[in-house]
Amino acid sequence: MKYVIIGNSAAAAGAVEGIRGIDKSSPITIISKEKYHIYSRPLISYYLCGKTDLQRMKYRPDDFYEKNGCSCLFGEAAIKIDKGKKAVLLESGKEVEYDKLLVATGSSPFVPPIKGLEKVNKKFTFMSLDDALALENELGSEKKVLIVGAGLIGLKCAEGIKDRVGEITVIDLSERVLSSILDSEGSERVKKHLESEGLKLILGHTVSEFDESSAVTDSGEKIDFDILVLALGVRPNISLLTEIGAQAGRGIKTADSMETSIEGIFCAGDCCESHDVSSDQDRILALLPNAYRQGEIAGINMAGGNAGFDRAIPMNAIGFFGLHIITAGTYDGEVFEKSDEKSYKKLFCKDGYLVGYIMVGNVEKAGIYTSLIQNRIPLSDIDFGLIFEKPSLMAFSRKYRNEKLGGRIQ
Asked: Are strands 252-253 and 272-276 parallel, antiparallel or unpaired?
C-alpha cells in the first residue's frame, strides 16, 4: 500500500500516526511546499516575541519521519491529482503514485485588490514560518507597523511584534475586534485590553488606497507606516480536489471517515468541512486539535481501520497580552450571562442542550462546557445553576459520574 500525504502540518502528523497504528511498514510519502520539519503554526507569534525558538516550535521530534518510515519531498508543490493514474503531479515535473491519498493543504491568506497595494514594498502576510521570518528581518524599535485586520491572525501578529517595533496601528472594517468569535461585550473588553497595551485600533473603517509607505482610509485619514501586514482572513486550498470533481462547499466535503466524494482520497485540516454537532451543520472547523484528529481518523481509515470524526465543534482558545479567551459552539438560543471587572461569560442553550459559550478572562474549567456541547448531554441531567456559576463535575448526576468517570467522584 502506497500512502501519500499532501501537506505537512498537524493533520499530516495525525495521518502518519493513524496509519502506523495499523500498518507498520507500507511506505508513506509527504509532499510539502514548505521546506521545514513539521511545526506548530500557532507558535509563529510566540517565536517573534521570543517565547519560543525554532527547535521548540517543532510539532514532533526530529526523528519523527525516520521512525515512521516517511519519505519527505520538502519544497515541492503539488499542482495536479490524476485520479485515473492515481498519481500526484509536482511542479518539478515529478509524479508520485498513491493507493490512498490525503490532501491536507490548509488555507492561504486572502489579499483583496486594494488600489496601490502593488506600490508597497514592505508588505507581509502572517500564516507561516516563512512569513514570520521575512517579517522579523524588517522589525526595528523605531518602525511603524500597520496591520489590516483585527481578527485572530492580525492581533496575534500584533502581540508577537509589539515589543520589537515603535508603533502598531490595526484597522478593520468591522466595528469590533475578533468579530468572528466574540459578541459586542466580549469584543469591547478585549478592545480595551489591547488599547491598554499600546495598540491603536481604527474600527469600522478600511483602507481605500495605498502608497509606498502610507494608507488612506475610507474616512480620508492618512496612516504612515514602515511595515504593512495583511491579515484579512484566509481561503481554504481546495483547488487540487475541486479540479477533479470532489464535492465542496467553502471547504471539501468529507464523510465522518474523512474520505471525500472520490474513493480513496481523503481530506483533513483547514481545507475540509466536517459536521459541527453544536449547529448540526457542515463547516470548516479550523483548529489545530481538530486538524490533528481529522488527520488521525483519515490515516486509520486509509490503512483499513474504522474510525469517525463525529463530535466536532468550532472552538478557539487564545490569549492576547495575558488576557485569555475561549469560545466554542454556536451562539444561538437562550442566553445566560455573568460578568465582573475581570471576567465575562456567556452560555447559549437551545432545545435542552448547551450549544455554545464565550469566556473572556477567567477560563478555568472551560473544558466542562466543551464536553457538554460535544457529548450532547441534556441540561436536565445536570445541575445547570451550579455549572453556570462554577463549572464542576459535581454538577453532573451521580449516574453520569459513575458511567463516565468510573464512580470516582461520589
From this structure: parallel
